[in-house]
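User: I'm new to structure prediction. If I give you an amino acid sequence, what do you actually give back? Let's try with this one:
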Amino acid sequence: MQIMIIGAGKFIYFLAKTFISKGYRVTIISKDNAECQWLSKRLKAVIVNGDGSDPRILEEAEVKKMDAVLALTPNDEDNLTICQAAEHLFGVSRTITLVNDPEQEKVFRQLGVKRAFSLTTVLSGLIERRVESEDVINLIPIGEGEVNLTEIILKADSPVIGKRLKDTDLPGDILVTCILRNRKAIIPRGETVLLEQDHLVVMTLPQSYGEAIRRLTGES
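Assistant: Good question. You get back a string of structure tokens that encode the predicted 3D arrangement of the chain. For your 220 residues, that looks like this:
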């Protein structure tokens, strides 16, 4: 797999190092000449000194050969330009960017950059939901943030204790995908009875997250 990373800083270095350790071929584009020299001495990667938002630089760096382009500069406008150029000018099927301003995340997606993530939004959401309850842990956004995967531990006061799964009347957009019971994984069926200390792995749409917590834990 060939990956192009555009940006600068230690984060880029460690990200590239991780990809290389997995056998990926990595190209890094950075405006900082000194950093390019530093990276070239430490990574088995193609290092390009230039402005990654310039289509000419992208072309010279052979962006057409890339399986994925990661736009990670501190400038949201540059990141948008990089993603759009990579996709529309050079036919790269997968572009990913971190949006620095969380208010721009929706704008990026409206402009066709589907894999645009605000680190601020992701972290704040994880923190807020993690502290809502000790019984709700390991929240993971998947499917580009369109689906949440959550682990919910059933306590003695849960309203679903002793009920069959089919009798909980969970809406269709709340799905119990797995139950961890006594360190064993159970694929639940409608007849499966929910017990205290069951760890439910629940898949929900973002707007259904609160309803899932309410129905399975009794918290409002």
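You can read the tokens as a compact description of the fold. Here is one thing that stands out. The radius of gyration is 22 Å.
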